[in-house]
């Protein structure tokens, strides 16, 4: 059994080129991936790239209180919204009992993230009781403005496959032509084979027939206070828009504003029929088969789909504009599509003249839900990269000094072996840089100052692995073995020590990453990554390279500058056994016989 074992060891020892070729292929592949991704440098965090710091103050809504649970939920939703936009290194954390600090680095989609991060994103589907142009558009009055069906500010809707396609378009808002609204066409699609018939009335749904109706003159009737608010509402004024639906309960009628192509419209809306929390999924897609352009596809929960079918069925019985429903997001009507029949199937598409960013933003907010609290911006501060740049230069200088000290120590103490250590450090640095660059677009990883510190600390971890292996080789030489068997015999013992050491380092990094938040996670992530790379480099580069160098005369003969000089290491002479005669001992001198 011993012979085959020696054969495998000899085979592995004679082919170290395979391991070196493997790590070379990995470097080439990672380099190709880096250039293919279009990112040749790591993404930088807010402390290095600059960005925006926003302070949000929570406001208690009806039915919700400012407490730790709601604040933590808000932080989680904000994080998911920003991550959904692909913004790297965004930091969202609470401060005190009612403040949230959001740090958004400068870069792709950072402006959209800043706009979305504090948006409550409370979505309701409400029946339209009356609507008409407001502000500048109202200067050309039209008695049919509220009954034209064209006052839809953003999309209109039709149940795909269940009625004529003309339902997807809106008419003009004014016969004079001075105030028209093309509206975005909203198409509500039924997926093939999914056409359940609603039965009964959805809980909480609002039936326009049971609410105050709007005559063709556009003047609302019903609750006097609500009529007064509707009559006085001027959506061209930002203050009126902000307060239009303020403190409105989902189960009560309200007023709201909506915009279309720069023109503002005001709405009288009935109680909410479907809540936005019953939107199971929303995503932005591009219509490649038609002219709809960018769309937001929504999938309702089973309960939400039934409620949506019920309310659209009720609306279809009414005349314009009471056959419309308003999609109200944070008090603003983003769409008021009309329907001619019930929309069943639990799926809908909001489409029209959306730009890609608008569709993605709306889908992002709908997907991740509404904030449990309302927030107002207390302060918005622009963070420059100047201070971070100075700290980075100081950190890199400290790292360079530390690396120089390590190299000097290796050269003085290990001499020729220092070339192996420095080559391994270079390979480790290349792999670290390539992987950090690729992780930017892949998972949003961004390099910040703590991450740089983690990379600097990793220099010591990597150098420690080399030292462990070199010392094991020297121990074997001190025992009187030549270099080639010393390299192979030292490896199993060094390997165990290196794996245990790296496992402890990786475990500490993993625990630190889990229990911390913010920038400290950058330090832990970088430390864990470089620890894993240390194992890869030692196994696939350092050990094979030592096997190759052991065949070179300079190292094999123990040159005094190789770092493996047997005399300099105090090696013992080879142990040799003396043969003794097998016969009985006799006198040493024949004369004694």
Report the principal-axis shape. Answer: elongated
Structural class call reads alpha+beta
Query: Using DSSP, what is the number of strands?
Result: 15
Mean pLDDT, to the nearest integer, reads: 74
Main sheet characteristics: 6 strands, antiparallel
Helix content: 40-55%
Distance between the termini: 51 Å
Indicate the radius of gyration in whole angstroms.
37 Å
Characterization of the model:
This protein has 593 residues and is α+β, with helices and mostly antiparallel strands. The chain is built from 15 helices and 15 strands. The strands form 4 sheets. Strands 4, 7, 8, 9, 12 and 13 form a 6-stranded antiparallel beta sheet that branches. The protein has a 4-stranded antiparallel beta sheet with strand order 2-3-1-15. Strand 10 and strand 11 form a beta hairpin. Helix 11 packs antiparallel against helix 12. The chain starts with a helix and ends in a 37-residue tail after the last helix. The N terminus and C terminus are likely disordered.
List the helices and strands and how they pair.
Elements: H1 2-14, H2 17-37, H3 46-49, E1 51-59, H4 68-84, E2 91-95, E3 99-105, H5 110-116, E4 123-134, E5 159-160, E6 188-189, H6 224-232, H7 238-243, E7 254-260, E8 263-269, E9 274-275, E10 279-286, E11 294-300, H8 302-315, E12 325-329, E13 332-335, E14 347-354, H9 356-368, E15 374-383, H10 386-414, H11 417-443, H12 449-478, H13 483-515, H14 519-549, H15 553-556
Parallel strand pairs: 5-6
Antiparallel strand pairs: 1-3, 1-15, 2-3, 4-8, 4-9, 4-12, 7-8, 10-11, 11-14, 12-13
């Amino acid at each position: 059994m011993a012979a085959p074992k020696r054969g495998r060891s000899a085979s592995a020892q004679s082919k170290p080129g395979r391991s070196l070729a493997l790590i070379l292929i990995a470097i080439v592949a990672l380099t190709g991936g880096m250039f293919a991704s279009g990112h040749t440098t790591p993404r930088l965090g807010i402390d290095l790239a600059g960005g925006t710091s926003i302070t949000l103050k929570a406001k208690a809504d009806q039915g919700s209180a400012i407490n730790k649970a709601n604040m933590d939920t808000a932080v989680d939703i904000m994080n998911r919204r920003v991550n959904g936009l692909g913004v790297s290194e965004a930091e969202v954390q609470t401060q005190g009992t009612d403040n949230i600090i959001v740090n958004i680095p400068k870069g792709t989609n950072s402006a959209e993230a800043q706009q979305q991060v504090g948006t409550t994103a409370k979505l309701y589907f409400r029946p339209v009781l009356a609507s008409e142009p407001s502000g500048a558009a109202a200067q050309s009055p039209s008695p049919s403005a509220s009954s034209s069906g064209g006052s839809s500010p953003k999309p209109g809707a039709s149940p795909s496959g269940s009625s004529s396609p003309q339902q997807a378009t809106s008419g003009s808002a004014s016969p004079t032509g001075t105030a028209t609204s093309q509206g975005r066409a909203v198409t509500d699609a039924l997926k093939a084979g999914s056409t359940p018939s609603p039965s009964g009335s959805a809980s909480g749904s609002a039936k326009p027939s049971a609410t105050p109706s709007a005559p063709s003159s556009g003047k609302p009737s019903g609750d006097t206070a609500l009529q007064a608010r509707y009559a006085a509402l001027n959506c061209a004024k930002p203050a009126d828009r902000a307060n239009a639906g303020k403190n409105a309960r989902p189960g009560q009628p309200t007023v709201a504003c909506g915009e279309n192509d720069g023109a503002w419209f005001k709405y009288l809306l009935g109680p909410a029929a479907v809540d936005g929390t019953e939107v199971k999924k929303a995503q932005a897609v591009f219509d490649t088969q038609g002219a709809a352009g960018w769309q937001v596809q929504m999938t309702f929960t089973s309960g939400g789909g039934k409620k949506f079918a019920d309310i659209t069925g009720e609306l279809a019985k009414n005349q314009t504009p009471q056959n419309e429903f308003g999609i109200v997001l944070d008090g603003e009507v983003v769409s008021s599509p009309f329907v001619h029949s019930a929309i069943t199937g639990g799926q809908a598409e909001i489409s029209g003249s959306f730009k890609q960013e608008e569709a993605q933003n709306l889908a992002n907010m709908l997907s991740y839900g509404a904030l449990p609290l309302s927030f107002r911006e207390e302060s918005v501060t622009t963070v420059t990269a100047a201070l971070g740049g100075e700290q980075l230069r100081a950190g890199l200088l400290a790292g360079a000094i530390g690396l120089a000290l390590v190299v000097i120590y290796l050269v003085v103490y290990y001499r020729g072996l220092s070339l192996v250590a420095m080559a391994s450090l270079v390979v480790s640095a290349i792999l670290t840089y390539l992987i950090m660059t690729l992780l930017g677009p892949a998972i949003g990883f961004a390099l910040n100052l703590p991450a740089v510190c983690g990379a600097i600390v990793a220099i010591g971890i990597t150098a420690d692995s080399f030292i462990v292996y070199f010392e094991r080789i020297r121990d074997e030489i001190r025992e009187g073995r030549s270099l080639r068997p010393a390299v192979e015999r030292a490896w199993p013992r060094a390997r165990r020590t290196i794996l245990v050491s790296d496992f402890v380092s990786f475990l500490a990094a993993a625990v630190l990453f889990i229990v911390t938040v913010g920038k400290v996670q950058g330090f832990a992530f970088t430390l864990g990554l470089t620890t894993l790379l240390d194992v890869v480099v030692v196994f696939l580069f350092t050990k094979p390279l030592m096997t190759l160098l052991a065949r070179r005369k300079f190292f094999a003969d123990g040159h005094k500058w190789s770092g493996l000089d047997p005399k300099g290491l105090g090696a013992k002479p080879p142990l040799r056994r003396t043969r003794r005669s097998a016969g009985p001992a006799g006198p040493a001198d024949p004369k004694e016989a």
